[in-house]
Amino acid sequence: MQAASITEGPPEPELVRIRELIYRVAGIFHPDNKLRLLRERCGRRMKNLGMQSLSQYFECLTISPIRQGELIALLNEITIGETCFFRNTPQLDALRRIVIPNVLAAKANGPQRRLRIWSAGCSTGEEPYALRMSLLDQAEGLLEGWVVEIIATDLNQRSLEYAKAALYGKYSTRNLTPRHQQKYFLPFGDQLRVNPMVRANVTFSRLNLSDDARMALMKNVDIIFCCNVLIYFDLTSKRRVIRHFFNNLLPHGYLFLGQAESLFGVSQDFRLVHLPGTTAYVKGESSPPEGKTL
User: Fold this and answer.
1) Domains of the chain
2) What residues contact 155, with CB distance under 8 A and at least 6 apart?
3) Which of 60-74, 207-221, 278-292 has the highest average model confidence (pLDDT)?
């Protein structure tokens, strides 16, 4: 099928049905101006399966014995992320200097010295590993005696397998300082592998942010990073995810979004705080007077 037939005239009915299926399952919505991209992703899977028509492929996704596995494969195609280590250093600086001390102070009288951070939409693992490296820099300071757990989740199974292998090329590691490279990586040919000390407290698992039952189990989290993920969701889906984040965070919890993202018009449950070079959201406090920052 030529590209012109994708962009001219009404969208193909079966493509619309596939779009609706993806939205129901994963909360990801493709508006009409993004249907060409969805058609290309479907085309890759159809070629792999030897299928010629979207109607065949829709049946494969809905009534075929392989429908569950094929739906995961399609979601892998449409959720390919691009990231690198230390992509947003102001967030990590604010985490170390302001957020971690605030969280530890809030938990000082609690029964456990445990810090739980959730990287929601971790892609190929650069974010959770960078979080762990940043916290290891404080292991002999504020975090001495604390157990740090980083939970990394993503919808894309291929990305998770890549993350677990912890092997990265020059593009992903381009922002590393010589100190981080020497301290936290091992050379592996022309690539770098994250060393065991970093990997030890980072766990990866597949999680659909639109799966209400699974999301409800992600309890007792201190800090959530969900950067450049909700841009693929419509307003209704965003509100569902953010509500789960609110419920899963502890009362002192922080939420970080991508640099171009905000909760404006999405949720009023969090308080926006201004940190050096970045922003975050805090759970359970009313908005401060206009102009006040943290």
Assistant:
1) 3-78 (1.10.155), 89-283 (3.40.50.150)
2) 26, 75, 79, 121, 206, 207, 208, 209
3) 207-221
